[in-house]
UniProtKB/TrEMBL annotation:
It comes from the Bacteria. The keyword Repeat does not apply. It holds the Pfam family PfkB. InterPro entries: Carboh/pur_kinase_PfkB_CS, PfkB_dom, Ribokinase-like. Residues 4-279 form the Carbohydrate kinase PfkB domain. This is Sugar kinase. Keywords: Kinase, Transferase. Signal peptide: none annotated. GO terms for molecular function: kinase activity. PROSITE patterns: PFKB_KINASES_2.
Length: 312
């Protein structure tokens, strides 16, 4: 099943208590595409970079099954750049530099070869750009997943709500869910947000896992306790890529399969944080992914009471 990913392909410079990097490849669409590529290939990408973006990094994406026909390269311009520094516990960060560059006037062009996509992942971008992508597709995809952030809630709330009405799944973190809904309780927040239009809502809670809401159903996936976490940059996007990659590969958008997709996305995100940037996502094996998913399954596995009684 064809998957189309829209978002940023960019440079990041990251500092954590465990080290720092110079400019490395980053951006929401980069993490999403690499993560999804472990479920299906090709992943069709629409994004924009400047002429400073190395051809070697474009080739890297292609080598991992990412179709870059929709990647615009703007001559004479620079790529989006973000630099940030994380706190000791990695739960908060300070943005040091944000340079929009080519992303400031990004006009997403959908190649004809991408028009048949059944699954669409809208990475974090201005909501009017996300909405434009939906409008430019000749046929509505079977499933549209959207990620956003509190920045757009602050400066473009009306546009954001108009875009949320058009999607099937919204993915945000707990702080953003509270801001968008005006409710502190995540259950109450979910009800308000689902009333805005999406059929499903994912609320990411970082090191505390993720929640999936649909009508009156709720599913919780814990986060995997890791010995070492080096860099949380891109973990949410990696989760999103794993989530929609699984759904597209199985072509099943039932609530039960979405629960499995949440587990797969959580497993992929747990790899992401083990190294800086995209490094850990570049050379995973199928066995590693399967073993990591099994660890998540063990976290939520409970023996039925009848089985316990029989053992006793």
């Amino acid at each position: 099943m064809s998957l189309l990913v829209i978002g940023s392909v960019a440079f990041d410079a990251i500092e954590t208590p465990f080290g720092k990097t110079d400019k490395i490849i980053g951006g929401a669409a980069t993490f999403i595409s690499l993560s999804a590529s472990y479920s299906l290939k090709p992943v069709k990408l629409v994004a924009v970079v400047g002429e400073d973006f190395p051809q070697s990094d474009i080739l890297l994406l292609e080598e991992h099954g990412v179709d870059v026909e929709g990647l615009q390269v703007k001559q004479g311009e620079k790529s989006f750049f973000w630099s940030g520094k994380y706190s000791r516990d990695l739960n908060s960060r300070e943005t040091l530099v944000t340079e929009l560059n080519v992303l400031a006037d990004f006009d997403p062009i959908i190649p004809d070869a991408y028009q048949d996509c059944k699954y669409l992942m809208l990475g974090n971008l201005a909501p009017q750009v996300q909405r434009l992508v939906i409008q430019r597709l000749v046929n509505r995809p079977k499933l549209i997943v959207m990620d956003t952030m509190n920045f757009w809630m602050d400066i473009a709330l009306e546009d954001l709500i108009a875009t949320i009405e058009m999607v099937d799944v919204l993915s945000i973190n707990d702080e953003e869910a509270r801001q968008l809904s005006g409710e502190y309780s995540l259950v109450k927040a979910a009800k308000k947000i689902l009333a805005m239009g999406p059929k499903f809502l994912i609320i990411k809670k970082g090191e505390h896992g993720a929640l999936l809401f649909h009508k009156n159903k709720v599913f919780y996936a814990p986060a995997l306790p890791l010995e070492e976490v080096f860099d949380p940059t891109g973990a949410g996007d990696t989760f999103a890529g794993g989530f929609i990659g699984h759904l597209a590969a199985t072509d099943d958008i039932s609530f039960e399969n979405m629960k499995r997709a949440v587990i797969h996305g959580s497993a992929m995100a747990s790899f992401c944080v083990e190294k800086f940037g995209t490094e850990r996502l570049l050379n995973l094996t199928a066995d590693e992914v399967e073993a990591r998913e099994a660890l998540f399954a063990e976290l939520v596995k409970v023996m039925p009471a009848a089985a316990i009684a029989n053992v006793a």
